């Protein structure tokens, strides 16, 4: 079983990726996407999206981070993939899963799933441009409005040279509404001869067991489930066991502190509180302590207000060195 950490635009960025890979071992993670549209992106764009490129392409916990590209022009994507490969990333991934309207209006992400032949041309062009030693994967949804072309899209990507495929088991129109249709992953896995990874709506060990049973695949990519439950991957690797939320919260506190410090140093003061509240909002699904902290900081607008609340809850960000 391989467990992967998903890319999530605006949520699972390098800061959160750092702390989540400290909490649990993942086989690899995928960065947020670099949008490719007609120009050759400078290396600084990739380093901003995946600062791990400056340390061998790995998080501080040594988890490899593949860099994701999004676009619709085969030649331009190929040129950018070749340029990205000069930075020696642990892998290059293509995004055919983003359902965001602003991305889809510019012919990026899941909207391309109505055009299997274009997916094949993109994959073939990028495969030809990327050195053979660089892993080349893709992430897709089941389709735009329905799953009628899901198998055809997967076959097009595999025929184009993609070495592994993550399938988010919902359509673009489904967005993130449950349920995830894991049975379609089984149909896709039977139709291609490359590894297929299941993604979508895995929040717990019980979800994971149902996902594996319905999809027929062993590998799973975690997204919001990992953000809401930072130790979920560890429990899945152990195939279950008792859950001690109090002990996990104690283990999570220094990671929250580290995350807050990184966010505060990187973002403008008016933006940093929102990033911490965003994570706490998901954590409160599983941790009553996060619920209490979230209620206290919900109205906070300034970093010093957050600092004071963290201290009151026994989380002292200032005591943690940034490089820890």
Report strand order across the widest sheet.
Answer: 1-2-3-4-5-6-7-8
Helicity range? 40-55%
Mean pLDDT, to the nearest integer, reads 94
In the CATH hierarchy, what is the architecture of the largest domain at level 2?
Alpha-Beta Barrel
**Number of strand segments:** 8
Distance between the termini: 30 Å
Largest sheet: 8 strands, parallel, barrel
CATH superfamily of the largest domain: Aldolase class I
Question: In words, what does this structure look like?
Answer:
This protein is α/β, with parallel strands linked by helices. It folds into 2 domains: 3-237, TIM Barrel (Alpha-Beta Barrel), CATH 3.20.20; 245-319, no CATH class. 44% of the residues lie in helices and 12% in strands. The chain has 14 helices and 8 strands. It has helices at 14-23, 43-49, 74-85, 101-105, 116-129, 150-159, 183-191, 205-215, 224-228, 232-237, 245-266, 272-283, 288-297, 303-312; strands at residues 3-5, 28-35, 65-70, 92-96, 136-140, 164-168, 196-199, 220-222. It has an 8-stranded parallel beta barrel, surrounded by 6 helices. The longest helix has 22 residues, at 245-266.
């Amino acid at each position: 079983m391989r467990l992967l950490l998903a890319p999530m635009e605006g949520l699972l960025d390098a800061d959160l990726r750092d702390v989540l890979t400290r909490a649990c071992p993942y086989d690899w993670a995928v960065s947020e996407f670099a949008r490719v549209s007609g120009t050759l992106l400078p290396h600084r764009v990739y380093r901003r999206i995946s600062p791990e490129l400056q340390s061998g392409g790995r998080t501080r916990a040594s988890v490899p981070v593949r860099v994701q590209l999004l676009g619709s022009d085969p030649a331009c994507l190929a040129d950018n993939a070749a340029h990205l490969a000069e930075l020696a990333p642990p892998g290059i991934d293509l995004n055919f899963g983003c359902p965001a309207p602003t991305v889809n209006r510019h012919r990026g992400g899941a909207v391309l799933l109505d055009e299997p032949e274009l997916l094949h041309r993109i994959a073939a062009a990028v495969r030809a441009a990327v050195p053979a030693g660089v892993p080349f994967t893709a992430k897709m949804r089941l389709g735009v409005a329905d799953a009628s072309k899901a198998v055809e899209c997967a076959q097009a990507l595999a025929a184009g040279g993609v070495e592994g495929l993550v399938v988010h088991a919902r359509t673009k129109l489904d967005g993130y509404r449950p349920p995830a249709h894991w049975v379609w992953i089984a149909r896709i896995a039977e139709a291609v001869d490359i590894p297929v990874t299941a993604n979508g709506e895995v929040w717990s060990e019980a979800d994971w067991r149902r996902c594996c049973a319905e999809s027929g695949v062993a590998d799973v990519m975690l997204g919001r489930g990992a953000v809401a439950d930072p130790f979920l991957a560890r429990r899945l690797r152990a195939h279950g066991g008792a859950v001690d939320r109090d002990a996990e919260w104690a283990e999570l506190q220094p990671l929250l502190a580290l995350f807050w410090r990184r966010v505060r140093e990187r973002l403008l003061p008016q933006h940093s509180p929102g990033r911490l509240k965003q994570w706490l909002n998901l954590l409160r699904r599983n941790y009553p302590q996060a619920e209490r902290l979230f209620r206290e900081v919900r109205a906070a607008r300034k970093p010093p207000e957050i600092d004071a609340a963290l201290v009151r809850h026994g989380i002292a960000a200032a005591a943690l060195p940034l490089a820890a």
